[in-house]
Amino acid sequence: MTSPNETAVEVVDLAKDYGPITALDSVSFSIPRGSYHVLLGPSGGGKTTLLRLIGGFVRPTRGRVLLHGQDVSDAPPNKRPTSMVFQSYALFPHMSVERNVGYGLKLQKMAKEQIREAVDQMLGLVGLEGYNRRMPHELSGGQQQRVQLARSLVLESDILLLDEPLASLDAKLRKDMCIELKRIQEKIGITFIHVTHNQEEAMTIADRIAIIADGRLVEEGSPREVYERPVRRFTADFIGENNIIDGRVTGRNGDRFSIDTGFAEVDVVAVGHDIPTGTEVAISVRSELLQLLRESRAADGRVQTLPATYVEEVYLGLTTLHLVRLPNEIEITVRQISGDMAGSVFQPGQAVQVGWKTAEARLHTE
Ligand SMILES: Nc1ncnc2c1ncn2[C@@H]1O[C@H](COP(=O)(O)OP(=O)(O)O)[C@@H](O)[C@H]1O
Ligand SMILES: [Mg+2]
User: Whose CA is closest to atom 14 on ligand 1?
Assistant: First the structure.
């Protein structure tokens, strides 16, 4: 465990029930100070509840919240070093940008001149220099989002909580704002905890991603770790474009496990795992790591293949999806850079082989 000074947030066995509904179920984890941490997961999984528990807007049913080493489990929001950017936190429509941004400081009874200075500085930081007198209706959605951000940042909390802050923006604007949020966080160096259900947003912005589903912490890691080496089947399914094939362990040779898929045997490497013969497992391979072959290659151990039937291609511009069906009726997606296969070389109904480098598949026991 890291020392309290390096840890912004530590939650211990944190749980929240709403009557019969368990919104959050025994979550424990910590967030290093100064990091950009994303809570990612499907809708209804408990992300907002976890963020509100950290901010003090919700009381835990069980467990503790420590911020910078201090137990704040019973402290109200204004006694915590946090500020929150809500999911749908509209600006005050009748107030100018500068009054919106300075509102919290005015409540704190800060002197007018100081408020003006702080507001100007924040507007500069979020790229809205000179927008002081604009009214909210004179701003684009992206600009309103920046004003909201400035309004939270100006309070100078050590931990900023953001609940789906980019959800109302279109895809292009969301990407730009992602990069900008990250830049702002790096510049001011405080801890950001950002909730989203959008995996691309999470990948773009996060130092670390915690995957939350069904009220639990499923898995945690850097964007690269959760994308390239997902441990849990759920993570593989949720992140990237993974093909998941069920099977059963039939044998083992060192770190190499033989898996019976019901219609073919493949080998999967899982370093440092002890998985008994007979265990039900899942194999995942990302679509961009799959190859389509006309016929089975001579098995040399470095490549695994499965028989399949070609279904169709879906041209998407940069990439093309090739859909194939396995003998167990599961559909597999092969994604290739368009042009790599020089037009449609496969016909619907044609027998093909789908293959991957042995090292590129992951094995999941849960
Ligand atoms: N105030 C509440 N009263 C009752 N149930 C709630 C309340 N807030 C959230 N829930 C339930 O708790 C679960 C988790 O919700 P939430 O934390 O909002 O998930 P997420 O933010 O991941 O979409 C859901 O089943 C939701 O319906
Ligand atoms: Mg939510």
Answer: 46
Q: Nearest ligand to the C-alpha of residue 46?
A: 1
* Residue ranges matching CATH 3.40.50.300 in the chain: 7-233
Cβ of 18 closer than 6 Å to ligand 1, yes or no, is yes
Does the beta carbon of 102 lie inside 6 Å of ligand 1?
no
- Ligand 2 centroid to residue 239 C-alpha, Å: 18
48 lines ligand 1 (CB under 6 A): yes
**Residue owning the nearest CA to atom 6 of ligand 1:** 18
Q: Picking from 24-33, 341-350, 351-360, which range would have the lowest pLDDT averaged per residue?
A: 341-350
Tens digits of per-residue pLDDT, 75-115?
999 999 999 887 555 789 999 999 999 999 999 999 999 99
pTM above 0.85, yes or no: yes
Q: Which of 208, 199, 143, 209 is nearest to 176 (CA)?
A: 143
Sheet-wide strand order for 319-325: 291-293, 351-357, 303-315, 319-325, 331-337
CATH 2.40.50.100 fits 241-364, yes or no: yes
**CATH class held by domain 7-233:** alpha beta
